[in-house]
Every structure is written in structure tokens, then in C-alpha cells.
Specification:
Elements lengths: L3 H17 L2 E6 L1 H6 L7 H7 L1 H5 L5 H8 L9 H20 L5 H10 L4 E5 L5 H6 L4 E3 L2 E8 L8 E2 L1 H9 L22 E5 L8 H17 L4 E6 L10 H10 L4 E6 L13 E5 L2 H12 L9
Length: 302
């Protein structure tokens, strides 16, 4: 953990970097949502949302997902498919539809203000879009709010709120749905699955336009004072945000990078003064930046 002196120095540098940026590229990982309460490692949240699974010994949401993370949904028996969706319909509702934008996301939105920005996120919970809208957000790993065909042969996505609510409303038990509520493509009968990047069948065509816009934004601003602001990104998928942000911050002459994470906030020494690390609880760090931005607050809440 950073010393108090180092932390306060980095906090001041981060505030200046945000204020002086002509453009901001934000990279958001799972740690951001976890800091707002959507934490897959929180046993109390698991017990609250999924007591049936908790009592089976699956004491975190991550553990339940591990049990029901199936990449061959189309090959499941009807009985296994009913149980698969018994978890996933509830999980999609709790993660995607039930919560409003949590505090870390609303704080970030306020801190960015009117500075031009683009956001890349590996989260499928739609928290970024709830706080910022969809126009300047690239969700590289998909979105819990959409289904796709199991084969991925159809490039379309199906907005799933009605299907999710129907599954939940008709559940005959806490861990399974009715067979007639298993989501399918009504035109072909092919089963649907969440639009999440888990195998080579992931339907990404609807997201590719956003990828082009994201790259264009960086290209148009790479000679300006551009800030790469990485939040809650670990090493699950470092090739999407973590390592590219480091490389671009090193490459572009007027770039700065802020790395905010509960842990693993270290930056390469080669970045020198271009790199700013803020370690610790993300929500609290954003609150401190917000207080400093407003000209008040107690920055000694370490």
C-alpha cells in the first residue's frame, strides 16, 4: 500500500491531470463495479441474492457463475437448461436491470465533466452506459442485456428484458425455469444465450462500429494532452485495457496515465512522470478526487 505522503502526492497529480486533459480515454474493469457494491466475491451479497445456492456451498456469485458457465448451451438437456437459466435469468436481472448507476460511476461522470471522452469497458453490467449513455462507450465483452444465438451464426442481438422477467415470473422453483420459457430464436428455434465473450461464437458485429469510433477518438487526440484513466482493471484480460493503456501513454508525447485499483496499481518505471497510481478503495478515491475538484472535502480520509 502507498504511504500517506506518496498517496497525497499522487492524488494531487491526478487532480491536475484530470483538470488539464484535452481528452480522456477511460478503461473500466470489474473492480469499478465491485466498488459500487456489485461484487462477485462478496459472500453477503451472494447470500442476499441467492440463498439457495449459498446453502449449497456456493458462497460467492463468482462460484455460482463457475458452476453455470456453460459454453455449450445448445447441447444441454432440457432439465439442465432449465437449471442453467434458473440462475442466469435472476443474475441478469440483479446485475443489469435492478440497479441504477452506482456511486463510482456517477462520481466519474461528474469528474469528467465537459472534457471530450471515450470509454472502453470489459464489464457487461451496463453500469457505464447508465451513467454516460451509449454513444461514447465500447463494451468489448458484450452486455448482459442482450441474447445471441448459441451458434453465433446470426449477427443479430435480442434485447432480453421481457424474456428475463418472463422467466423469473414463471419460475416453478428458486433454481429452475419452465421449459417453455427457455429463450429461443422464434424464427429458427435455435436456443439463445447471453451475449458475453466466452468462446469463438461471440457475436461482436454490433460492437465493431464502436471499436472504430474508439480508435478514431484516440487517433484524433493523440498529439494533445490526452489522459488514459484506468479504473478497476486487473490481469483477467490485460490485453484489452491495461497493457494498451501503458503502451499508448508511453508512445504519445503529451499523454498521462492514471491507474486506480484496489491492488495491483503499479505502473512500469519507464513511464516516469507520465504515470500516476492511486491504490485503495476505488469509490473512496473517486470521492476524494471529487472533493478536491469541488474545492473542499477532507483528503486525509486514507
Amino acid at each position: 500500500m502507498q504511504s500517506m505522503t506518496d498517496f497525497l502526492h499522487e492524488l494531487e497529480r491526478a487532480q491536475e491531470a484530470i483538470e488539464n486533459a484535452n481528452a480522456i480515454v477511460v478503461g473500466i474493469g470489474s473492480g469499478m463495479s465491485a466498488s459500487g457494491g456489485l461484487d462477485y466475491t462478496d459472500s453477503e451479497l451472494c447470500k442476499k441474492w441467492y440463498p439457495e445456492y449459498y446453502n449449497m456451498g456456493l458462497t460467492t456469485i463468482g462460484a455460482i457463475i463457475g458452476r453455470y458457465w456453460v459454453t455449450t448451451i445448445g447441447q444441454l438437456s432440457d432439465e439442465d437448461a432449465k437449471k442453467y437459466w434458473g440462475f442466469w435469468c435472476r443474475h441478469i436481472y440483479h446485475i443489469r436491470y435492478e440497479p441504477e448507476a452506482t456511486e463510482p460511476y456517477t462520481l466519474l461522470r461528474s469528474l469528467i465533466g465537459h472534457t471530450p471522452y471515450y470509454i472502453i469497458t470489459t464489464n457487461g453490467d451496463h453500469q457505464t452506459q447508465k451513467a454516460f449513455g451509449k454513444e461514447h462507450v465500447l463494451a468489448t465483452q458484450g452486455d448482459y442485456g442482450y441474447f445471441q444465438t448459441v451458434s453465433g451464426a446470426d449477427d443479430r442481438l435480442w434485447y432480453n428484458e421481457d424474456m428475463v422477467r418472463k422467466m423469473i415470473d414463471n419460475m416453478p422453483s428458486a433454481i429452475e425455469i419452465r421449459i417453455q420459457d427457455i429463450p429461443i430464436n422464434e424464427e429458427t428455434g435455435e436456443r439463445l444465450e447471453p451475449n458475453l465473450r466466452c468462446d469463438s461464437n461471440f457475436v461482436e458485429l454490433p460492437w465493431l462500429e464502436k471499436l472504430a469510433n474508439y480508435k478514431r477518438f484516440i487517433e484524433e487526440n493523440n498529439e494533445r494532452s490526452i489522459l488514459f484513466w484506468e479504473i478497476g482493471v486487473g490481469f483477467n484480460t490485460p490485453t484489452i485495457i491495461r497493457w494498451p493503456f501503458e503502451q499508448m501513454a508511453h508512445q504519445y508525447p503529451n499523454a498521462t496515465i492514471i491507474r486506480m485499483n484496489k491492488s495491483e496499481s503499479q505502473l512500469p518505471d519507464t513511464l516516469g512522470q507520465k504515470g500516476i497510481a492511486l491504490e485503495g478503495d476505488i469509490r473512496e478515491r473517486l470521492k476524494l478526487l471529487s472533493a478536491a475538484n469541488d474545492g473542499g472535502g477532507n483528503v486525509f480520509l486514507y
